[in-house]
């Protein structure tokens, strides 16, 4: 997305962007996909120098359909997606808006402090880390997920195609289950 053969100033801006992404612990392969002018070994070095020698995470990248394990997660992901869409001036179904992802993620973290799960994201508050937030934004761009308006609750809700939750408003489903007193459905 960012071409090579850059001016010194452009390269400094790329380092600034890499710093912003790595500070939030975006997986280095995503940083490398975005910023072509900095090598992957150097991106890993930047990660280690920001995080006191800690190596970047490796292994499988998060898959959008596997992020919500429990229905309540859909509520949090809907909120994140809605924040992201509101923060962006562009069509997020056509492009990823990196600064809007950063803004929405920081806002989300302020709203739910202490939820960040870097390596073992098993909580219900999702996205659990910045890489999952990135994957949500990516899914909205490539059509694996979409934000829809719900006529019943008048809010935005996310639909994640191929996830275990039906492409309807899960916020309303949670509400119906709660009214029925069917709390096990919430887990
Ligand atoms: Zn609804």
From TrEMBL:
Q: In the record, what terms sit under GO molecular function?
A: DNA binding; metal ion binding
What is the superkingdom listed in this entry's lineage?
Answer: Bacteria
**GO BP term (any one):** positive regulation of DNA-templated transcription
Query: What Pfam families is this protein classified in?
Result: FlhC
Signal peptide range equals none
Transmembrane regions listed in the UniProt entry: none
Q: Give the keywords, sorted.
A: Activator, Bacterial flagellum biogenesis, Cell projection, Cilium, Cytoplasm, DNA-binding, Flagellum, Metal-binding, Transcription, Transcription regulation, Zinc
Protein name per the record: Flagellar transcriptional activator (FlhC)
């Amino acid at each position: 997305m960012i071409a090579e053969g850059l001016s010194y100033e452009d390269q400094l801006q790329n380092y600034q962007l890499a710093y912003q992404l790595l500070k939030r612990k975006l997986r280095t392969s995503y940083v490398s996909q975005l910023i072509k002018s900095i090598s992957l070994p150097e991106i890993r070095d930047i990660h280690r120098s920001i995080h006191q020698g800690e190596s970047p995470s490796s292994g499988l990248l998060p898959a959008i359909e596997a992020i919500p394990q429990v229905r309540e997660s859909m509520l949090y992901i809907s909120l994140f997606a809605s924040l992201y869409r509101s923060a962006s001036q562009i069509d997020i179904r056509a492009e990823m808006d990196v600064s809007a992802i950063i803004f929405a993620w920081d806002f989300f973290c302020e709203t739910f402090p202490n939820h960040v799960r870097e390596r073992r994201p098993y909580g219900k508050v999702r996205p659990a880390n910045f890489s999952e937030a990135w994957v949500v934004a990516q899914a909205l761009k490539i059509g694996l997920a979409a934000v829809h308006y719900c006529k019943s609750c008048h809010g935005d809700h996310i639909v994640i195609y191929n996830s275990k939750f039906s492409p309807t408003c899960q916020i309303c489903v949670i509400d119906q289950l709660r009214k029925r007193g069917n709390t096990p459905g919430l887990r």
